[in-house]
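Milestone M4 deliverable, item 7.
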Amino acid sequence: MTRYSLHFSLLLTLTLALGCGGGDQPASNPAITPAASSTPAKDDHGHKHEGHGTGPHEGAVADWGGGKFHVEFTVDHDKQEATVYILGDDEKTATPIKAATILLNINDPKFQVELAAAPLKGEAEGTSSRFVGKHESLGKVQEFAGSISGEVDGTPYVGDFKEEPHAEPKK
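Output delivered:
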């Protein structure tokens, strides 16, 4: 396990352990974004934390950092590959970060994937808004749920996401 994987695994474990008994109390570390609830946060920065909807790449969008960033989870089951995009506060604009990897944790079946930076054309060297990784369990056709964690400028971020079934096209 790499140093970053160990760091993010520990961060995720602490986040889950500390975040399970708080009721309406704010998170103890504002840099770590708790899972969305049906009650909007006191500082909802103009939008609710649930129901972000579909992202620009047709993926599940989650809050990452109190609205400063958002992450979009997509999966290609045939390739057994996940791609996560880092988006800005508008939930649409690619926002490159200085990171070599981020960590994807899937709840059911439980597994982790380290996603490597795969910069989009035109992104500055050493930055990326796209991260890609493979795992055989991603080949299972299902709606995935889990968390995405990473570090930006020394600040850890965690965001929970849940894929929703795609609507059937109208005929």
